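so my prof wants the structure for this chain in the tokens format not the other one, which i didnt know existed until like an hour ago. anyway here's the sequence
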Amino acid sequence: MNSKKKEKAAQKAQYKRVLLKLSGEALSGTREFGLDATILTFIADEVRDIIGLGVQLAIVVGGGNIFRGIQGSKAGMDRATGDYMGMLATTINALAMQDALERDGIFTRVQSAIRMEQVVEPYIRRKAVRHLEKGRVVIFASGTGNPYFSTDTAAALRAMEVEAEVLIKATKVDGIYDSDPRKNKNAKKYKELTYIDVLNQRLEVMDSTAISLCMDNKLPIIVMNLHEKGALKRLILGDKVGTKVTV
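here's what i got, hopefully its the right format
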């Protein structure tokens, strides 16, 4: 095998279709709230690298950097109203992510579970799949379109609907720990866990609805550090990055 063929073989993606879950907090960078343009550009570069491998990518974004419905509820706001406000926050993040990706030469579509045709497409599963097949990155906004459901659950649901092979949750931490590594320097990192482990140990990875949905449909979850340069590409190429949750 010549060097070009060896390089091509070495660059073969292990996943054809991937759903990437980005938390709103991850998009704020070092800020307490809002969007960090540097982080958006960094993510766009990381995405460009995996698109170059032929990966079909869907993204679900959270809205916690702008507004979180459950926090509004704790402050006395009606929970459903707060959740709808949170869904609108995810749409702001989705548009920001779309802009960063397209400035990097990546074709995208934003689909929202709440209809707002003047801004984004409505979510239509078959249309989303066609976009993916044409090499466009599809960004899903507005969660599931229903109050009381998190964007983690939306990520699990959309991953199942578009038949993604893996759900990658990109965070500020490089995997799942038995306690918060930012507060406990002796926190133990797990390389692999089962869905039941996550549920029984109440590990704060994703909410229980999202974990159960992935478990019922045998969809692997990988938790990784969004801010580690090249980590997403290495994961796609088959390297052991972060923590994997499976059967």
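also thought this was worth mentioning. The chain has a mean pLDDT of 92.
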